[in-house]
């Protein structure tokens, strides 16, 4: 029981970790990593249905995609670009993820580890669905924040490449950009 409580404590910690990019952009009381992850799960479910992906796998992957942030925090892209680099960020997150799942039973730990590695590799349809869901949730949240805050100094729209969307995700991303108050096509 103690092992499960240690794991759940990390999951619960995500409720108290702000999405750093929004905090840096001056958004008061930005969404938490847990709130973001909740949205990602819903986007992932919808995209998985549209793209005929394995929904059970997608939902599991969506739940764990930012779990490492319970230990390393939400590292914003400008920090990655200026100081860490993508490889070091991935190394930190992989180590944190492995520490978090260490208390779990071998079978579950192995299953979650395999899902995390698949997500990080980004090569399967299911991993691409979750990656798109992660980015779409951010764009949807940015639209919500644009209604109340000046985000013209943020680079939220620029950090999402347009060329590698799945078809259903790309259509939604294009619609979000059209609705944006600050995006310049």
Give short descriptive properties of this protein:
single chain; mainly alpha; Hypothetical protein af1432; 68% helix; 185 residues
Task: Give a verbal description of the structure.
The chain is mainly α. It has a single domain, classed as Hypothetical protein af1432, CATH 1.10.3210. The longest helix has 22 residues. It is built from 10 helices and no strands.
Short description:
The chain has 185 residues and is an all-alpha fold. It has ten helices and no strands. It is globular and about 50 Å long.
Proportion of strand residues: under 5%
Q: List low-pLDDT spans.
A: none
Shape: globular
Query: How widely separated are the two ends?
Result: 53 Å
Q: Report the CATH C-level class.
A: Mainly Alpha
What does the main sheet amount to? none
Mean of all residue-level pLDDT scores: 91
Q: Structurally, how many domains make up the residues?
A: 1
Supply the CATH superfamily name: Hypothetical protein af1432
Report the count of strand segments. 0
The count of helical stretches stands at 10
For the record, the CATH architecture stands as Orthogonal Bundle
Q: How much is the radius of gyration in Å?
A: 16 Å
Structural class: mainly alpha
The CATH topology: Hypothetical protein af1432
Write the H/E string, N to C.
HHHHHHHHHH
Helix content: 55-70%
């Amino acid at each position: 029981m103690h092992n499960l409580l240690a794991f759940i404590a990390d999951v619960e910690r995500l409720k108290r970790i702000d999405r750093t990019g929004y905090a840096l952009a001056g958004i008061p009381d930005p969404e938490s990593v847990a709130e973001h992850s909740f949205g990602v799960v819903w986007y992932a479910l919808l995209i998985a249905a549209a793209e005929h992906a394995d929904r059970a796998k997608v939902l599991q992957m969506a739940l764990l995609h930012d779990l490492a942030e319970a230990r390393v925090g939400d590292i914003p892209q400008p920090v990655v670009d200026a100081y860490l680099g993508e490889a070091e960020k991935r190394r930190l997150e992989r180590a944190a993820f492995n520490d978090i799942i260490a208390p779990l039973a071998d079978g579950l730990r192995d299953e979650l580890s395999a899902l995390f590695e698949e997500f990080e590799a980004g090569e399967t349809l299911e991993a691409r669905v979750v990656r798109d869901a992660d980015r779409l949730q951010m764009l949807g949240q940015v639209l919500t924040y644009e209604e109340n805050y000046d985000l013209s100094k943020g680079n939220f729209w620029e950090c999402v490449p347009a060329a590698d969307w799945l078809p259903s995700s790309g259509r939604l991303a294009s619609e979000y950009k059209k609705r944006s108050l600050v995006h310049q096509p």
